[in-house]
Amino acid sequence: MCSKSSDRKNLVVAVVGAPNAGKSTIVNAIVGEKVSIVSHKVQTTRRVIRGVAIIGTAQVVFLDTPGFCSASSPLEKALLANFRRSYQGTDLILLVIDATSQSHRLSIEFIEHTEKAEIPIAVVINKIDAVRKECILEVASSLAVYDHIKKVFMISALHDDGVMDLKEFLEGSAFDGPWLYDDAQTTDSTMSFRLAEITREKIFARLEKELPYSTYVETELFRESEKKATIYQSIVTLKDSQKGIVLGRNGTMIKAIKNDAITDIVALLNKKVTLKLFVKVREKWTEKKEHLQNAGII
User: Long-range pairs for 106-111 at CB < 8 Å and ≥24 separation?
Assistant: First the structure.
């Protein structure tokens, strides 16, 4: 991307919303690369992920946040702390609302909570392809009473419908100033973390119920040359019974997870990949600071 330094603009945007509203899908769509993992299960994002997009002369830095959540367990408290930090000091809050959801209570509470905040807020009603037009208009009309909402967008991030209007708005909202990241940078996450997240995404896709929430992935070795990468990762569970489920009968489950992950890792690194997965048990890891740090949550 070539532009004069004097012409450049920047904008820092906190992307917030209820779990599974499509925050990560929107960030990935605008960045043009998967910087945040996605899943049909709620609360997949555990920490703030930064995605960087160049829109015209503006560099837009997205802070993809954990979904709104309660805070009873140490893990939930860490997620809530990550969320609360996410929008402090940003230029714009982008609240994503799931058009298919039956309740928007958490989103409305957030809007009311930010009514006196100095940070402008825009709302994105996402997944409009999955509901009737009347339902979309009903959600939009419920937002009309809040004067501090700068703009409301109706999009389908999955099908790239309405995303261009959102991008134009973001470019127009940017401030004059230098870019905050290098031209080609799409995220500030380390490669080891991104590789671990890819594997964690596959765990969410393959395993059912609460088990994915009881695991994290740690990249223990990442070594690459021009044509090849070697990666060792540990899938950490809370107890032995979960380890058996992750392994599967005769190792079938962990093999499937590995094959799924390799496909995405090859696309990311553009080279041959050797991936070795191991399963470890660390009891009560969700309650221990050391393991929450290893998981990249705090």
Answer: 106/18, 106/68, 107/17, 107/18, 107/68, 108/142, 110/16, 110/68, 111/143, 111/146, 111/149
Domain count, the chain: 2
Give the CB-side neighbour count of residue 159, counting CA atoms within 13 A. 10
Q: Which helix (H) or strand (E) holds 279?
A: strand 272-281
DSSP run (H or E) holding 166: helix 163-173
For residue 63, the tally of other CB atoms under 10 A from its CB is 23
Q: Summarize pLDDT for 108-160 with one digit per residue, the tens.
A: 888 888 877 778 899 999 999 999 999 899 999 999 899 889 999 999 998 99
- Alpha helices, H only, 11-149: 23-31, 74-86, 105-113, 133-143
Percentage of the residues of the chain whose pLDDT score is greater than 70: 90
Within-domain flag for 79: yes
Q: Tell me: the pLDDT tens digits for 252-268? A: 999 999 999 999 999 99
Structure-model confidence comparison of residues 202 and 41, the more confident one: 202
Which of 11, 120, 124, 2 has its CA nearest to residue 60?
Answer: 11
For residue 8, give the 3-state DSSP assignment. Answer: coil
Q: How far apart are alpha carbons 43 and 27 in whole angstroms?
A: 16
Give dist(CA 207, CA 211) in Å, integer: 7
Residues 98 and 244 occupy one common structural domain: no
CA distance 63 to 205: 24
Where residue 30 sits, what CATH number does that domain have?
Answer: 3.40.50.300
